[in-house]
């Protein structure tokens, strides 16, 4: 009996939010009276096993088979399903990234098990696991439960909703190496190429996000002659030379509204909102964003929201903790300069 | 060659959704729309069926509310629409959904490609797609941003798919289940003729008996819906010239300990 936690890795490193699942898992394991087993698959898994121990895993199961090097759900799910069938853990938990959701849902289907996604709160009541999860883009909270007495419960938690355990340098864990289940020949997919995302900070992991909306097009700088679309040029110049420097001092990720994405100012990967990323940073700075309901849906749970908008009536001010009415092209550079001074950068 | 696409209706994203006194989720008289993520899936189904010289069928599971999404799909140009509904089919039970959906794909037969949108914009469970793929025993290709090549004769597909850290180019055997991102295409608007045709269409309803599906035990209980605690923010406006505003804001943010 155990609580399994899948530690997501990329190129031999644990994803930044992965350890949060061990934090949440400890709550569960205490409630259910079991220990915690970390599952680490792929490159460098053995070295990461010791890191997992420091974050609270009692045991670690690793597999470094070559079929697990690239992310392929069929290879990962075959192994997870086998481990679940062999060990019958009460819970399998992971931080709900796109890979985790896919992996856990696949094994839940293989084993006809309960699956609860996007939990922001967790509790244990006897053998039942209860979660609170936001639905309707956070307009409503749903309470749901599944009973570990009926089999394994698969659970994903929202990134940044739980804190990782404090590191215990002296801790160690029993590490077991297992073979992969799928062989290369049995797999239907081949990864031909991989292109890493550009951009320094991942939006969903970010503690601070600076976002720019359609207002980015009101850049006072003149585009060079012959530019096809001056508005696009102005906005892109603004992201690169006005918002990015602010991101750099803050260690922040760069976000955007859908209007800015649709206008071709910035790639879709940066979109925050109901049809973009749901984020929950400590600080969200919205620049030239009006605050449409679909945008708010993606960032309303941010701890502190700052809005910079030239229109005092913009709805974003109703959601913000701090508001500045003004031209972002004046306010943001001033803010960047001030932060550089104050944070000693 | 047959392409199947799944869709459902969701409340308009601008609707004020809330929980009423009886604990039910309501959205006033706001319209329901086709799940916005599915417009890309529907478009891709039309394109792929045409390229493969086959047919595109759209399926929704659940009550009559989902006829709206199905009619929208027909108006866009899908060949056929089917709704799966049964008193025993609980819309909150994803395992049951996947089991019934897999039975429907098998009943249609000759299906090479099943297409989904990224997620449901309302309940956002993001699991139906993967569960269906496993119930069918087919390859899952999630978050596809581009289909590079499909060979329906050789039964192979090559796609670009995304996850947080980057983009993979993957080749796979068909049949496969794919979920698509908005980069994949530009969904068409329903045509006037399409809307008229869809308006007149009667949508067949398949029961679990029609599918010959027996459902796994229900494992998840949805206990309650609640309105989130209202966040009583009173915005503090920061006045002055940009330099003063910047200095005051930094003071506040340091106090809030978010830097
Ligand atoms: C199905 C659906 C899904 C959607 N999903 C999303 C989503 O995921 N995310 C999302 O963001 N939107 C989404 N939307 C779109 C949403 O409704 C809004 O259209 C969009 O958020 C508006 O973006 P914006 O605030 O950048 O643009 P606008 O509403 O045009 O606002 C621009 C703002 O910039 C201000 N401004 C202009 N110049 C300056 C300047 N120099 N300095 C300071 N301020 C300035 C203006 O005062 C204005 O308030 C969705 C819509 C639909 C129908
Ligand atoms: N009841 C349903 N009928 C048809 N398609 C659905 C249903 N529920 C979810 N889907 C589709 O499954 C995909 C993933 O949804 P979800 O797992 O609910 O986030 C989306 O494309 C949805 O439209």
Structure in words:
The complex is a heterodimer of chains A (345) and B (259). With 345 residues, chain A is an alpha/beta fold. Chain A has two domains: 2-186, HUPs (Rossmann fold); 208-343, Rossmann fold. Chain A contains nine helices and 18 strands. Chain A has a seven-stranded parallel β-sheet with strand order 7-11-6-1-4-5-12, with helices on both faces. Chain A has a five-stranded parallel β-sheet with strand order 15-14-16-17-18. In chain A, helix 3 (73-87) packs across helix 4 and helix 5 runs parallel beside helix 9. With 259 residues, chain B is an alpha/beta fold. Chain B has seven helices and 15 strands. In chain B, helix 2 packs across helix 5 and helix 3 (94-108) crosses helix 4. The model of chain B has no long low-confidence stretch (mean pLDDT 95). The chains are: A alpha/beta (345), B alpha/beta (259). The interface between A and B is large, with 94 and 79 residues. Adenosine monophosphate binds next to helix 1, strand 6 and helix 4 of chain B.
Elements of chain A, N to C (H/E): EEEHEHEHEHEEEEEEEEHEHEHEHEH
C-alpha Rg of chain B (nearest Å): 22 Å
* CATH homologous superfamily label of chain B: HUPs
In the CATH scheme, the class of the largest domain in chain A would be: Alpha Beta
Q: Say how many strands of chain B there are.
A: 15
Helix content of chain B: 25-40%
Mean pLDDT of chain B: 95
Question: How are the SSEs ordered, and which strands pair?
Answer:
The complex is a heterodimer of chains A (345) and B (259).
Chain A (H helix, E strand, L loop, with lengths): L1 E5 L2 E2 L2 E2 L3 H15 L2 E7 L3 H10 L4 E5 L9 H15 L3 E5 L2 H13 L3 E6 L1 E5 L2 E8 L4 E8 L5 E5 L16 E4 L11 E8 L11 E5 L17 H21 L2 E4 L1 H5 L20 E5 L5 H7 L4 E6 L6 H4 L2 E4 L2 H15 L3
Parallel strand pairs in A: 1-4, 1-6, 4-5, 5-12, 6-11, 7-11, 14-15, 14-16, 16-17, 17-18
Antiparallel strand pairs in A: 2-3, 8-9, 9-10
Chain B lengths: L1 E5 L2 E3 L6 E2 L5 E2 L5 E3 L3 H14 L3 E7 L5 H10 L3 E5 L9 H15 L2 E6 L11 H9 L2 E13 L4 E8 L2 E8 L2 E5 L11 H9 L4 E2 L1 H4 L8 E7 L9 E2 L4 H14 L4
Parallel strand pairs in B: 1-6, 1-8, 6-7, 7-13, 8-12, 9-12
Antiparallel strand pairs in B: 2-5, 3-4, 9-10, 10-11
Helix pairs in contact in B: 2-5, 3-4
Bound molecules: flavin-adenine dinucleotide and adenosine monophosphate.
């Amino acid at each position: 009996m155990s609580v399994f936690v899948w530690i997501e890795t990329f190129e031999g490193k644990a994803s930044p939010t992965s350890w949060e699942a061990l934090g949440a898992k400890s709550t569960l394991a205490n409630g259910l009276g079991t220990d915690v087993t970390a599952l680490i698959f792929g490159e460098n898994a053995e070295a990461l096993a010791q890191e997992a121990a420091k974050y609270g895993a009692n045991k670690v199961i690793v597999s470094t088979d070559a079929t697990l090097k690239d992310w392929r759900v069929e290879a990962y799910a075959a192994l997870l399903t086998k481990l679940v069938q062999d060990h019958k853990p009460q819970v399998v938990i992971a931080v709900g990234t796109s890979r985790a959701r896919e992996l856990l849902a696949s094994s839940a289907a293989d084993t006809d098990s309960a699956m609860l996604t996007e939990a922001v709160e967790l509790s244990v009541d006897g053998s039942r696991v209860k979660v609170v999860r936001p639905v309707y883009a956070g307009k409503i909270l749903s309470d749901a439960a599944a009973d570990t007495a009926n089999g394994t419960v698969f659970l994903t938690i929202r990134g940044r909703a739980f804190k990782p355990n404090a590191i215990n340098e002296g801790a160690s864990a029993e590490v077991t190496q297992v073979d992969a289940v799928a062989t290369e020949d049995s797999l239907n997919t081949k990864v031909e190429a991989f292109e890493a995302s550009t951009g320094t900070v991942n939006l969903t992991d970010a503690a601070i996000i600076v976002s720019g909306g359609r207002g980015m097009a009101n850049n006072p700088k003149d585009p060079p002659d012959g530019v096809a679309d001056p508005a696009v040029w102005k906005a892109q110049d603004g992201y690169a030379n006005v918002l990015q420097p602010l991101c750099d001092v803050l260690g922040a990720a760069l976000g955007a509204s859908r209007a800015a994405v649709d206008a071709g100012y910035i790639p879709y990967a940066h979109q925050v909102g109901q049809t973009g990323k749901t984020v929950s940073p400590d600080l969200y700075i919205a620049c030239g964003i009006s605050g449409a309901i679909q945008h708010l849906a993606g960032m309303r749970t941010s701890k502190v929201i700052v809005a910079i908008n030239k229109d005092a009536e913009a709805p974003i001010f109703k959601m913000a903790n701090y508001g500045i009415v003004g031209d972002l092209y004046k306010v943001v550079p001033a803010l960047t300069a001030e932060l550089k001074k104050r944070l000693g950068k | 060659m047959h392409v199947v696409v799944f869709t459902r209706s969701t409340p308009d994203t601008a609707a004020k959704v809330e929980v009423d006194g009886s604990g039910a989720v309501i959205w006033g008289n706001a319209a329901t729309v086709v799940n916005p993520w599915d417009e890309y899936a529907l478009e891709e189904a039309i394109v792929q069926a045409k390229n493969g010289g086959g047919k595109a069928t759209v399926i929704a599971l659940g009550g009559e509310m989902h006829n709206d999404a199905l009619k929208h799909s027909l108006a866009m140009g899908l060949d056929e629409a089917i709704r799966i509904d049964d008193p025993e089919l609980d819309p909150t039970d994803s395992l049951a959904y996947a089991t019934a959906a897999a039975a429907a794909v098998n009943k249609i037969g000759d299906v090479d490609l099943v297409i989904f949108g990224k997620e449901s914009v309302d309940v956002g469970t993001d699991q139906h797609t993967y569960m269906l793929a496993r119930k069918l025993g087919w390859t899952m290709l999630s978050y596809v941003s581009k289909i590079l090549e499909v060979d329906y004769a050789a039964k192979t597909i090559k796609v670009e798919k995304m996850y947080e850290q980057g983009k993979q180019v993957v080749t796979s055997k068909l049949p496969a289940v794919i979920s698509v991102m908005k980069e994949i295409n530009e969904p068409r608007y329903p045509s006037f003729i399409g809307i008229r045709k869809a308006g007149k269409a009667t949508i067949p309803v398949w029961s679990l008996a029609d599918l010959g599906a027996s459902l796994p035990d229900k494992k998840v209980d949805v206990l309650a819906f609640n309105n989130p605690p209202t966040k009583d923010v009173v915005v503090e406006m920061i006045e002055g010239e940009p330099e003063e505003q910047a200095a005051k804001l930094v003071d506040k943010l340091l106090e809030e300990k978010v830097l």
